[in-house]
Design goal:
- The longest helix has 11 residues.
- The chain is mainly alpha-helical.
- The chain is globular and about 30 Å long.
- It has 3 helices and no strands.
Amino acid sequence: MQDEYLVPPRGGACATKPTSIFFPDPRTRGITPEMREAIDTCTGCAVRLPCFKYALHHEIHGIWGGLTEAQRENMRRQLKITVSIPGYVDPAGTRIKR
């Protein structure tokens, strides 16, 4: 993984939006209008790709780079990527050490 993806990018279109639309209630099923707004915000964002790459390796919650938690988790499984969060246990049962 490249160093540039160790921190989330700055200057995203999300900076002008309420944080709550990017972090829906974890009990939410399906795509809500707020989630759609977050995804649409990401669609034209200049830092969408670095945001997505950062989140693929470091974020398990929220909408990042236009993708939901479930979409990123599916990609991780397919690409055999483990999230770099100390203490995190991925769906395969692998615990990330501190």
